[in-house]
Amino acid sequence: MTLHPGPVDGFWGAVGRTPLIRLKRASEMTGCDIFGKAEFMNPGGSVKDRAALGILGDAVNRGQLVPFQPGTVVEGTAGNTGIGLTLAANARGWRSVVVMPETQSREKIDFLRMIGADLRLIPAKPYSDPGNYVHYSRRVAEELSKEGPTVWANQFDNLANGAEHERTTGPEIWEELDGRIHAFTCSAGTGGTFAGIARALKSRNPAVRTVLADPMGSALYSWVKTGTLKAEGGSVTEGIGQAARVPGNLEGAPIDDAVQIPDDEALREVFELLRDEGLSIGGSAGINVAAAIRVAREMGPGNTVVTILCDSGARYQSKLFNPEFLRSKGLPVPSWLDG
Questions:
Q1: What pairing do the DSSP bridges indicate for beta strands 118-122 and 72-76?
Q2: CB burial of residue 103 (10 Å; 0-12, 13-18, 19+)
Q3: Is 48 noted as a catalytic residue in this protein?
Q4: What is the pLDDT of residue 5?
Q5: What is the pLDDT of residues 185-220, one digit of tens each?
Q6: Which of 90, 201, 213, 245 sits at a 20 to 30 Å CA gap from 188?
Q7: What molecular function does GO assign, one term (predicted)?
Q8: Nearest 5°: phi and psi at 150?
Q9: How many CA atoms lie within 13 A of 129 on its CB side?
Q10: In this structure, are residues 210 and 254 in contact, taking their beta carbons and an 8 Å threshold?
Q11: Do residues 290 and 266 make contact, with C-beta atoms less than 8 angstroms apart?
Q12: How many CB atoms are closer than 10 A to CB 256?
């Protein structure tokens, strides 16, 4: 795989080959080399651009969509997958319908409208409720399929999601480090990023330790540790964690262990990376970095740990960088915002 191939063709060619950034403070704290894969540098601004290409590329291969012919892409999303799908669809001449809980950040809502998605905001409901955004989006896709070629992206259970990370993200990490990697950790929403990368790394070296990072309010930590889905507490992070089920992309993934990260620990990494290293990351990336530090400390000095910097802090300005919001949740406010 060539990491820097030179000029590329449009949005589809620009996704991936993101840099691996050494996190100075985290590395010095632990005596390890901790790296973050800078997925916020994808053209749509998040790791979900890769899932979008995997899912839509698979739909083309199956004959469900034809580039530059009428077609519609439908998805239920916390935001970033909807953005990646919409931009990828725009580049191939398809329409996008995005169903999203109205509780998601204002920045993602505005951005989806800006890029031309047919955005349908609905009340946030648990997965067990028929009104949950995933079920709602499936019904929308079923209705639209009567009018013409329509694909329900189904990112949680569509295995093309994880396959794309196994094909691209994992091998990129391996090549960027010349195989010198001892552990990988990241959070899971659909599970595609974690599962695909874990499979790619384990296939090259089964000794690579794979650790799932989970926010409070998610049951995946309990599932890994005990085999039972049990959620406790809550989190302000968006797009990660599962309270009631194991997504198809995560089932069967090689998971060695799990860590659970509270919001204050994650936000400390968000704020300190911004202040000290000039890296603007979102809450899920904060969970990931905090998890990488925990894994590094457990393994001891001299190891190399990799995680994912999923998206940028700009997508959460109205929440994670809003002093009033932070105080309302009992979370720390960085000094430069505490006016």
A1: unpaired
A2: exposed
A3: yes
A4: 67
A5: 999 999 999 999 999 999 999 999 999 999 999 999
A6: 90
A7: cysteine synthase activity
A8: -140, 135
A9: 9
A10: yes
A11: yes
A12: 16
**Cα four-point dihedral sign 331, 334, 335, 339:** negative
- What is the token pair recorded at 221? 């930590």
3-state helix, strand, coil in the chain (%, to 5): 40, 15, 40
d(CA 254, CA 304): 19
The rounded distance, in Å, linking the Cα atoms of 185 and 137 is 30
> Cβ(236)–Cβ(283) under 8 Å?
yes
pTM of the model as a whole: 0.96
Dist. CA 296–CA 298, nearest whole Å: 5
Q: Which amino acid is at 75?
A: E
Residues 6+ apart with CB under 8 A from 158: 55, 58, 248, 249
What one-character DSSP code corresponds to residue 276? Answer: H
Tokens found for residue 305 = 């740990």
Check residue 4 and give its pLDDT.
Answer: 58
Q: For residue 33, which amino acid is it?
A: D
In the chain, how long is the greatest CA-to-CA distance? Answer: 59
CA separation for the pair 136, 332 (Å, rounded): 35
Q: Among candidates 212, 208, 193, which has minimal Cα distance to 292?
A: 212
